[in-house]
Amino acid sequence: MLQLKNIVKTYGEKDNKVTALNGINIAFRKNEFVAILGHSGCGKTTMLNIIGGLDHATGGDLVINGTSTQKYKDRDWDAYRNRSIGFIFQSYNLIPHQTVLSNVELALTISGVSKSERRKKATEALKKVGLGDQLHKKPNQMSGGQMQRVAIARALINDPDILLADEPTGALDSETSIQVMELLKEIARDRLVILVTHNPELAEQYSTRIVRVKDGSILSDTDPFEPENVKETEKNRKKRVSMSFFTAVSLSLNNLLTKKGRTLLTSFAGSIGIIGIALILSLSSGINTYINSVQEETLSSYPISIFKETTDMSGAFAAIMDSHKQDADGGSNDKIKSNTDVYEVFNSVSSSSKQKNNMKDFKVFLDSNEDIQNNISAIDYSYDVKMPIFTRDVNNKIIKSDLAEMMSLSMGIDDSNPMTSSTFMSMGSMEMWEEMLPGKTDDTVSDMLFNQYDLIYGSWPQSYDEVVLVVTRNNQLPDVVMYSLGLKDSEQLPELFKKVMKGETIDDYGQTEWSYDDVCNKELKLILPCEYYQKSEDGKSYTNLTKNDTGLDYLFEADDIGVNIKISGIIRPNEDATSTMLTGYLGYTKALTDYAIKKTNDSDLLKAQIDDKLNDVIAGLPFKTDSYTEPTLKEMSDKINDFLKGCTTSEKAEIYKFIMSIPKEGEAEEYAKSILSKVSRQELIDQVTQMYAEQMGVDSEAILSYISNMTDEELFGYAAEMLSNQYVQQYAQMMEQQLAALTLEQLSAALDMADITDKQYVELFNKYTPDKFSESSYDDILSEIGYADFTNPSTIKLYAKTFEQKDKIADAIAEYNENASEDDKIKYTDYVALLMSSITDIISGISYLLIAFVSISLVVSSIMIGIITYISVLERTREIGILRAIGGSKRDISTVFNAETLIVGLVSGAIGIGVSLLMLIPINAILYSATGIEGLSAYLPPVAAVILVAISMALTLIAGVIPSRLAAKKDPVEALRTE
């Protein structure tokens, strides 16, 4: 039973207020055919919409089966329209992109009926209206009468209690109108049918009750119904309905398929951002994979290295990496505040400097620990063993085969100067002689070296006295190495240096090519430091025979001293080697190191020193104790004055020459300062780089890299010391020439009259006063002799083939530290992990930055998709009204359009991934052409592809939220009126 109580419906506000229904009171029986008759604009369609729940009254109450609808919510109205109401419209209101069968099924779909059941019911309904053979046609393939019968079948599919027909014959011809009216008359036998029409003939012919309406009021009712008081019940509040997500997807997919061109163009536009991000991720993944492979190869060149004395640089690295961070206290806005970045770096180094590792106990642990032994590919114990190897140059002069020695010789600087070896070696990170990694068993050379280097001449070392020469891939060696091997005249070096300092260009490079035989047949000899010394006649000290040519010649030619070294072969890095282990130019075996240690430890000199810890056995003097104090200047001058009184004329003459060869205090420094004041930093860098590159054959890039990193103080300080030393030598030569014309008597007399300066007193004291104490310590002497203990290495290098193995080795060391005392904990810095992780972070940072830029296109495309979705909402406004009329809720409408945006996002993502995969083919070809690296190729990880598609769907879904909400809020009545 349906009853309208004093229903009022007004539109507009205040002066524009229009009353469509004015106090309608009417009740309907459960089964009758009621015709509401009236002219256009009288309010009959408004009354029908209120009865059907599409519109709501401004006042009054709609009572359904005795229940007031005043407290109905949207979901209650949705269920009412879906289960109790069937709508038949004048303009059919079929969804054009759905088949006839799908249009009829729609109400059942919203009701949650299974697919098989709704297909069966829809087919039966269409057969009842005579369309059993038209199931799969689209509405635009049918006549008006057929479409109206489809609308009737759709209205009846849910077996509604009430059928509402709004001018169902208005757009039909007479014959078809009669067919439709007959069908409605048949339906009215078992349910309430309310027909809105302005045709009185049809109303009188087919209806059982005619209600005439005019200006929003009922004029007459041919068969009024006065219901008895019915107790309110919740019976009519049927189960709420909801459209499934898959139904929404189906509706949206069919709609998109009707506009394939626009859908594809929209999806492609949305895929541009996905393509950009996918390509960036592919390149980043490819580069990171390549870096990982390089890391594993690099492990052979940069093993876990543990030193007896070490500085943990991890704190410094952390301080440097954090130096860009801002202080939480921003300071004053009108003042500049200095941070403490440099101090933090210094403090981090200072606080951890000179840490000592207990190598003896740690070696025992390494040799016995299974985890270490199972994960290392090789282990190398190194010792502070000097390998002084001598040879003869082209002038038959015996020279030490050492790069620092050659550098010192070229500069005319004594090798005792602390600026020489450390500075020269750091410039090119160059080593002349280097121990090669031994194999895990008894092999003299590790397999890793065999894998990294090709033997191009001779053979690998088979015994302790054999070495290999290491050349570059172009069979080249620096000039300084050839000088060190005696293949070039070392006496040319000082002259070449002078030319460079004068700005002259070196045109004559001398011999630049040698045969393999010339190099391998070079005579080399290892003379250990313990063999340098010969006991003095008094037996109280030892004399270093290498300090003069005669002694050096004796050592080199003696058969019972030293070991003759043979260059057995020549090796060079193979083409496949990304990283190589050796940094030196001549590689010797561990067997030679073992020989040197045993030979030194068995020497009489070392045994004598170990037995006497209070005296320097070489100098024959006691070591300084804590109570020792340096002599004062007065003590020095008094001592020298007493010494001069006992000197002969010839001795005084020599002393006078000596003191006159010493420049005045500060004179050499002023000379250097005057020269450097006319030179800019860049000019000085250019001169030094050119000097070493031309004179020594050292790589100019390596020199420039080192010098460029020097501060002004370091660079100019180094140059000032070099110029000062040159000035001292030139000054001494000049004074020697000036004094050469004087007799011994004149020189002696000049000394008696000379006013000796403080600096000259110090130099005279150091030269002519015999030492009472050794200037070296006990440890210094042991080191000078070459002492080493097999159980206490100075360096331990642990090699691993993979990063996983390296991590397990690091875990084993960490476990060792947990059980060790604080002093015995092993400290080391994993530089490879620090540096390579930084590179990976940089690449990731760049990738994220590029992704951020490309993401802008994603946002823009998402906005575009949102606009297109809104256009789709406008185009499908009538469809929105139809869905609402058959019981679809606001949420269902939102779901339909959200499904549409999801489909567009899915297609966009799929297109983006597909295009990206195709583009990777030429990109990888370009990468290989540009780099020549076979292992470097871009690829898109499957997980990343899935995530990108998901991101595309999520962004389009977000972009469609506003249009979908607008669609859901549309007035269904207005939506149905939209053309």
Overview of the molecule:
α14 crosses α15 (420-428). This protein is of the alpha+beta class and 979 residues long. The protein has 4 domains: 2-241, P-loop containing nucleotide triphosphate hydrolases (Rossmann fold, 3-Layer(aba) Sandwich); 255-295 and 839-977, no CATH class; 384-527 and 562-602, no CATH class; 629-772, no CATH class. It is built from 38 helices and 27 strands.
Radius of gyration: 50 Å
Low-confidence stretches: 323-328, 415-429
Q: What is the level-2 CATH architecture name of the largest domain? A: 3-Layer(aba) Sandwich
Count of helices?
Answer: 38
Structural class: alpha+beta
- Helical coverage, percent range: 40-55%
CATH class descriptor of the largest domain: Alpha Beta
Q: Which fold name corresponds to the CATH topology of the largest domain?
A: Rossmann fold
What is the total tally of β strands? 27
| Estimated share of beta-strand residues | 5-15%
Features:
single chain; 979 residues; alpha+beta; Rossmann fold; 4 domains; eight-stranded mixed sheet; six-stranded mixed sheet
Question: Brief overview, please?
Answer:
By secondary structure, the chain is of the alpha+beta class. It folds into 4 domains: 2-241, Rossmann fold; 255-295 and 839-977, no CATH class; 384-527 and 562-602, no CATH class; 629-772, no CATH class.
Which secondary structure elements does this structure contain, and how are they paired or packed?
Blueprint: E1 2-11, E2 18-28, E3 32-37, H1 44-51, E4 59-64, E5 67-68, H2 74-83, E6 85-88, H3 100-111, H4 115-128, H5 144-156, E7 162-166, H6 174-187, E8 192-197, H7 200-206, E9 209-214, E10 217-221, H8 245-257, H9 260-298, E11 304-307, E12 309-310, H10 314-321, H11 341-351, E13 355-356, H12 359-368, H13 370-375, E14 378-382, E15 389-392, E16 398-400, H14 403-411, H15 420-428, E17 431-435, H16 447-452, E18 453-458, E19 466-470, H17 479-484, H18 492-501, H19 516-520, E20 524-526, E21 533-535, E22 542-544, H20 549-557, E23 563-573, E24 584-588, H21 590-601, H22 604-611, E25 615-616, E26 621-622, H23 633-645, H24 649-660, H25 667-676, H26 681-696, H27 700-708, H28 712-739, H29 744-753, H30 758-768, H31 778-785, E27 795-799, H32 803-819, H33 831-875, H34 877-885, H35 890-931, H36 942-959, H37 961-968, H38 972-977
Parallel strand pairs: 3-8, 3-9, 6-7, 7-8, 17-24, 19-23
Antiparallel strand pairs: 1-2, 1-4, 4-5, 9-10, 11-27, 12-13, 14-27, 15-16, 15-20, 18-23, 19-24, 20-23, 21-22, 25-26
